[in-house]
Amino acid sequence: MKTEDIIQELAQTGRISRETIQEVNDDTDLRIEMIHYFNQHQNRPFVLELLRTLSELRKDPDEDISGASLMLACYLLGKHQQVEDCMRVWEAKRIDFDTYCYVDGQLIPFAGIQETIAYLKTQTGEEAGRALQYLEGGDYDNLDTYYGEIPWFVNQ
């Protein structure tokens, strides 16, 4: 399976199947191919659906969605550079205790730490306040490096 096959599945059916998600979850080569694909082709609606589907499946105790797969979706979303998506990454990080520990904080301020903090300060929601507090306590000096290479979790 290739990224284009998954995009086609979503276009034809309006969703990404559990079987396809499981393949993303299990296939390191596919995850690497997805990163290369989205470095060349922006498709934010697809990545939003990928993150939504992974997040929903992660909430189901009968599903086996890895933190690495959630991080991949967050990473791909971050590559689209829409600062408001920082809250989607924050929500994925907060799905459960394990994802809170597993999902890297560097995935939240993908648009730059100052830009993300400025955006969060304009938001009134309680979760935005928590995300802001979380970011203000962290070290995000190497975001360019983090987003410039194949991240560590792709090979997990």
Q: What layout of secondary structure does this protein have?
A:
Elements: H1 3-13, H2 18-26, H3 28-40, H4 44-58, H5 67-78, H6 86-93, H7 97-102, H8 113-121, H9 126-136, H10 143-146
Overview of the structural elements:
This protein has helices at 3-13, 18-26, 28-40, 44-58, 67-78, 86-93, 97-102, 113-121, 126-136, 143-146. The mean pLDDT is 93. The chain is mostly helical and 156 residues long. It has one domain (3-149). The chain has ten helices and no strands.
Q: Helix-strand pattern, N to C? A: HHHHHHHHHH
Q: Approximately how much beta-strand content do the residues carry? A: under 5%
Q: What would you call the structural class?
A: mainly alpha
The biggest beta sheet is recorded as:
none
Radius of gyration: 15 Å
Gap between N and C termini, in Å?
18 Å
Poorly predicted segments: none
* Whole-number total of structural domains: 1
**Helix coverage percent of residues?**
55-70%
Q: If helices are DSSP runs of H or I spanning 4 or more residues, what is the number of helices?
A: 10
Q: Count of DSSP E strands?
A: 0
Mean pLDDT, to the nearest integer, reads 93
Shape call: globular
Which features does this protein show?
mainly alpha, 156 residues, globular, 10 helices
Short description:
The protein is an all-alpha fold and 156 residues long. It has one domain (3-149). The protein is 63% helix and 0% strand.
